[in-house]
């Protein structure tokens, strides 16, 4: 399976539902950006010959079924404190029942070659950017041996929590959240957000352990694990917050275009004067899940 389109955990869940013995998910080079090979200023080559990820790079990350159960999968709906009652791993709705592994596109290429001419041929957004193959659904008569060594253990984790008292409506809280662990080298996710926040960390366990305070004071959650990435502004949000995004970005200057962030945002999406910039819908797979799916609070991820 290719990365992209939806959260990797949902890909494994669908594979499990349809009776697959395991799941292999690879990163296609088209995921990094447009493959414009005729434009020397935007080469399609992989690092170190170009800007895109190395052909041997594998994208790792959790495949927990976050839309069903976020946080500690052994303490559903309550905080995973030291003496908490824990369910068995095989009884957790948040854990996959089949093994899975991430692959680089270099390692996925032999599997893709084995599907040539078999099944349905992918078109447009379903197809990737590898010249060596056409994208077919398969199945093949080949066999892949998947070995996945998993260490199951309970270990402590820590949150860094800070509070700044506001001058207006101090009884209400705007919560900023990020995670401390890096996604590979983490220049964008989460280090860009960490630099913006200076010092802040939060998890689902904290949400479960502070429901009363959140219910009383929390107004909005803003997710910033990827605060800075590239020259163009973009956002995902609860629909009820869209008008706030439009209003705020209209008041912020964009030094690159010398316009407002809102106008630069519209120009990048090539919209007419009457159209509003597109704001994505929140799904799962990041720190906002606990606030959006498991606690009644508007969420926003930038």
TrEMBL record:
GO terms for biological process: proteolysis. The keyword Transferase does not apply. This is Peptide hydrolase. SUPFAM superfamilies: PA domain, Zn-dependent exopeptidases. It comes from Mucor ambiguus. Its EC number is 3.4.-.-. The keyword rRNA-binding does not apply. Residues 34-57 are annotated as: Disordered. Belongs to the peptidase M28 family. It is an enzyme of class 3 (hydrolase).
